Amino acid sequence: xxxxxxxxAGCSGTLVVQQLIRRLDPGRRVKILWFGDEERFGPGLPYGxxxxxxxxxxxMKSTLLGVEKDGPLSFDPWxxxxxxxxxxxxxxxxxxxxxxxxxxxDYLAEIAAELQAACRRSGHELLTISxxxxxxxxxxxxxxxxxxxxxRPQQWMADKIVLALGHPRKATxxxxxxxxxxNPYHDLAALKAAVQPGDRIGILGTKLTGVDMALLxxxxxxxxxxxxxxSGRLPLVRxxxxxxxxxxxxxxxPHLRSLRDFLAWFRRARAWEHDYVGLFSExxxxxxxxxxxxxxxxxxxxxxxxxxxxxxxxxxxxDLHDTQKRKFLRKYQGMWMSYRHPMPRENAMRLLALxxxxxxxxxxxxxxxxxxxxTGVEGFRIHLSQGDLDVDRVIDATGHAGNLARLDCxxxxxxxxxxxxxxxxxxxxxxQPHTMxxxxxxxxxxxxxxxxxxxxxxxxxxxxxxxxxxxxxxxxAEPESPxxxxxxxxxxx
Length: 493
Description:
The chain has helices at residues 11-23, 44-47, 75-81, 101-122, 188-194, 208-219, 259-269, 285-295, 301-308, 313-319, 322-340, 345-357, 410-417, 461-476, and strands at residues 2-7, 30-36, 125-130, 132-139, 142-149, 152-158, 160-163, 169-170, 180-181, 200-204, 224-228, 360-363, 366-371, 380-384, 387-391, 393-396, 407-408, 431-432, 437-438, 444-446. By secondary structure, the chain is an alpha/beta fold. It has a 5-stranded parallel β-sheet with strand order 3-2-1-7-20. A 5-stranded parallel β-sheet has the order 9-16-10-11-12.
C-alpha cells in the first residue's frame, strides 16, 4: 500500500488531502498520514481561533472564496446554511460582504471533518495525527517522519511527502518579550495581554496585516499608533466587484516578457482614467483615503483589470529572469500590494477616523529599529528618513519572510541540514513550478507561502487549490518503469 504524508493541517494541507481523495480510484489502496499541530485541522494560522480576532475581516468578498467555486463546498452557500447574515456590507449588492476570518476557519474545519468522514465511507485510509513533525529523513526508497506525540517521540514511514507548512514563525531580531512582536498572529494572545492603555505602538508594515494590527491596537486602547514602511502607502479600497461572469476575463497579453512590458500594458489599458486625479501620486494618507472611499462606491475598472491577471500571473512570473524577480521584490512589491490587494471599505473608514483623530500616523522612508537607550523606559526608536519615532512596543506586520534564514521553524532547519531544501534566488523554497516537487528531491513536494519566489501567488485559496491539484496528480502517478537492458543493446536514453 502506498503511503503519503501531508505535513500541515491548515488550508494548504486540507486542499492537498481533498484533491487526493477526489482523485483516488475506488480500488486503489493509499494510506494518507495527515500531521498537524494546530488547534483544529483545517483553519491553520490565517483562520485559526487562537490567531485571530473577531474584527479581522477577509479582504475578498465571500462569493469569491472557498475550496470550490460552485457546488456544496463553496463558501457563500455554507455561510447561508449556517444562518450567517451579511453583517459586513459593501456597496453595490447584498452579496458584497466581507466576513470575519474566523468564519473561514469554521468552514475549513468542517471541510476537514467531511474529508475524514468521506474516507471512512469509501474505505480509504486517512490517519490524522496531532503532532509537531520535527524531522524527515530518507530511509530506503521512502521517508521516515519523526514527531512528538504527548511528549513521546514516534515515527512513521511514508513513500511520498507534502510540505504544507503554512506561515512559519519568523526569528525575532530582539530579545524583548512583550515589547517586540515578530509574529503578531502566532502570538496574538500575548500581544493582547501586553498592550496597555496609552501605549505608543509602532507597526512595521502598511499593508493588510498592518491594517489589522492598527485597528486591533485602537480597540485595545493604545495611545498613539505609528505605521511605517519604505513606501508609507496604505492599501487602496476595494470597489464593487461584479460577479465573475461579468468581470473581464483577459488572457495574458502577447509579448509580455518583463516588468517594463507589464507596466506599459497597464498604462495602455487606461482602465484607471475614470478614477480620481492623483490615483498614483497622492501621498497624504487622509486625503488619499477620502478619495479612495469616494471612488470605491462603484466598480473600479483598473481593479478588475488587475484581478484578471490572477489567471496568468504565475506563468508570467516563472518566465521572468531572476534579476527581474529580485528587482520587483526590491522596488515594486509594496506598490503592487497596495493596488492589487485593497482593503474592505469598513476597514478604510475606521482607519480614516483614526487618522483624523491624530491617534494614527503613517510614515514612509523606514530605515531601521533600535532599542531605545535614551529615555530610561523600555522601548524602541524607529529611524525614518525624515526623523525618528519613540515607541513602547513594535509589531512586525511585514508578513512572511522569503529568506529561509529568517524563519524559526525546527522542521525547516532540519530539512536544510539534511540537504533536502535550498533557497530559490528570489526567496522561498526552490521547487519545480510545474510539478511542485522540491528541486533535486524526488517524491518530496511543497506548497503555500514557503514557495513564494519560484511562484508568485501562493496563499490565495484558489491558487492553493490549483497547486494542491498539481501535487495530487504527481502523488498518484504510477512510477515509471525502469529502462529494459537487453544484451548487446544500449539502454534507451
